[in-house]
Write a structure and sequence with these properties.
With 108 residues, the chain is of the alpha/beta class. It has 5 helices and 5 strands; from the N terminus they run βαβαβαβαβα. The chain is globular.
Length: 108
C-alpha cells in the first residue's frame, strides 16, 4: 500500500521544489485544472511513459486523482512502485480537497 501525504505536507513540498506531482486523471480533467507543476500520467500509460516523464526513480513523487473515491492515483502509485520507484506517495483527498481549500491550480 502506498504511503499517504497530507495537503499541508504537499503544499510545503511543492513550495520547496521537493516533489514531482503526478495528475492521474489526464485528458480534459488535466487540461481544465491540475495542481501547480503537475505532470499528467494516467494508469494505462504508466508502463510506456514513466521512464520518460519520471526519469529519477529515487525522486519524491506524489500522485493524486479527483477525490478519495477515485482509484487512479493508487493504481499509478502502485505501478510506479512495481517499476522500481522508491519514494512514491499518494494525496488521497485529491484535487477536490485542494480546490475546496482555496489553493491554486493551473490549466493548459
Amino acid at each position: 500500500m502506498t504511503a499517504l501525504i497530507t495537503r499541508d505536507e504537499l503544499v510545503a513540498a511543492i513550495k520547496n521544489g521537493e516533489v514531482t506531482v503526478v495528475d492521474t486523471l489526464g485528458g480534459e480533467y488535466y487540461a481544465q485544472q491540475h495542481l501547480p507543476g503537475a505532470l499528467a500520467l494516467v494508469p494505462a500509460e504508466v508502463d510506456a511513459r514513466a521512464s520518460t516523464v519520471l526519469p529519477d526513480r529515487d525522486a519524491a513523487i506524489v500522485t493524486y486523482c479527483s477525490n478519495p473515491a477515485c482509484p487512479n492515483s493508487g493504481q499509478v502509485a502502485d505501478r510506479l512502485t512495481a517499476l522500481g520507484y522508491t519514494n512514491v506517495r499518494k494525496y488521497r483527498e485529491g484535487i477536490q480537497d485542494w480546490v475546496e481549500a482555496g489553493l491554486p491550480t493551473e490549466a493548459v
